[in-house]
Amino acid sequence: MLESLDLETHLGKKEYENSIESLHRELGVLQRTLRSHAVPVLVVVEGWEASGKGYVINEMLRPLDPRGYVVHNEAEEDPEAARFPSFRRFWRMVPEAGKIVFLNRSWYRLLFRGETLDDSGKKAQFFDRAAGFEGNLLAGGVRILRLFLHVGEKEQKKRIAALLKNPSTRWRVSDSDLAENRNYEKNLEIWEEILNQSDHAASPWICIPANDLQVAAKKALAILQSFFTESLVADPKTAPLPSHHEVACSGILKRVGMDRSLTSEEYGKELPRLQGMLLEKQYDLFRKGKGLVVLFEGWDASGKGGAIKRLTQGLDPRGYVVHPISAPNELEKAHPYLWRFWTRLPGKGHIAIFDRSWYGRVLVERVEGYCSESDWRRAYSEINGMEQEWVESGFGLVKFWLHITPEEQLRRFREREETDYKKWKITPDDWRNRQKWPEYEAAAEEMLLRTNPPDAPWTIVEGNDKRFARVKVLRTVLSVMKSLL
């Protein structure tokens, strides 16, 4: 892919400036059109050290309105990054609708710099994660342009030497930059493998010869102009959908024994005992830098709020946060679906509790028609991929489905209507959703079946008796905490 590029072409500065005038005008118009159509764009500029990435990015920015773009540098030190799964930092860089993000270097630097290349299993895992990340962005409407700037060994050595000679730029050359040039042939093989393994039709790598900076910049501007134009007409949702077969209702919820209960005396003894143990384990998690995610899904009035309250009563408030998840706001709608959950992932040593979660896509959004069928069908694999990355990065994940019978839900609804201090809990939407119980039950059944891997299983909580449900929740969280230590 790289060795076939012509590195000998040259272009004078004056000739270059004259040749890009029309490109600049067109790019300004296209940027405004992309913004008016709310199209998010991610431009990734990767390449050798000293290949001119900064120069090329700057040239692409010249014709653009600076209010509509932002530049992120992957190479900037990020001490927080080590506390999260590796792709979380890139989720935070995802452009919102109508904005352009330029990324200096890519997520593939994680592979190039690390020892993963020597481990075939870890290497395959990284490519899978990268493909999943890019697929999520494409499915969320983000247009992705990936450029790679290629320079020859002698030209790279010459540029590094020039940087070292100038006191103002000497700081820009690191030991790893020097090592990259010393081992140029080996690194060329590595880049070739990375580019070939990660190339795909939805967002292909475009390799640019960069021995001459004007040649590279002109090519990049022309590619950007074509990419902007195509982004206004092409459907980015080209990531292949997972294979799907209709799932017969498994009946798992109908088989749940709903007669489980605790007496007031049993509850009064067990609750404070478990809460005390939770606090001890929370401190252990903090000391060992282990993050924990706890999510609650379930029927309206199934007791999610009460269970969360009893769980948090036993924790140090400095080490957890509760995220009540409702319909996405305008900023969240302007990003791919999973963005708002990646950005809420807790740091290691902390706990995030979700009152409803990313499973809304395959529950309420599916049933109420708030997303397309292709969106919720694809979501199973997207969610599984996200959770797998969290677990493999050392996070604990607890998933609760709080289950009650239709009769118990009706009793609780009526109790809320008849009790002054509980009236705020009941809304017309609750009654409307109740009329769709069979549809929600089918969606929940399929969700439980498709998103139940061994390392991130669902726990179904028998919720007709609130005391039993709360104690089961605490016991389950405590068990996962212990398994992390």
Task: Give a description of the structure.
With 485 residues, the protein is of the alpha/beta class. The protein folds into two domains: 219 residues, P-loop containing nucleotide triphosphate hydrolases (Rossmann fold, 3-Layer(aba) Sandwich), CATH 3.40.50.300; 221 residues, P-loop containing nucleotide triphosphate hydrolases (Rossmann fold). Helix 3 packs across helix 10, helix 11 runs parallel beside helix 20 and helix 12 crosses helix 20. The protein has a five-stranded parallel beta sheet, sandwiched between helices. The chain has a five-stranded parallel beta sheet with strand order 7-8-6-9-10, with helices on both faces.
Task: Kindly list the characteristics that best describe this protein.
Rossmann fold; 10 strands; elongated; 2 domains; 5-stranded parallel beta sheet; 485 residues; alpha/beta
Summarize this entry quickly:
This protein has 485 residues and is an alpha/beta fold. The protein has 20 helices and 10 strands. It folds into 2 domains: 13-231, Rossmann fold; 264-484, Rossmann fold, CATH 3.40.50.
Topology:
Blueprint: H1 13-19, H2 21-36, E1 41-47, H3 53-61, E2 69-73, H4 88-91, E3 100-104, H5 109-113, H6 120-139, E4 143-150, H7 153-165, H8 175-182, H9 184-198, E5 205-209, H10 213-231, H11 264-288, E6 292-298, H12 304-313, E7 320-324, H13 330-333, H14 339-342, E8 351-355, H15 364-368, H16 373-392, E9 396-403, H17 406-418, H18 428-434, H19 437-450, E10 458-462, H20 466-484
Parallel strand pairs: 1-3, 1-4, 2-3, 4-5, 6-8, 6-9, 7-8, 9-10
Helix pairs in contact: 2-10, 3-10, 6-16, 11-20, 12-20
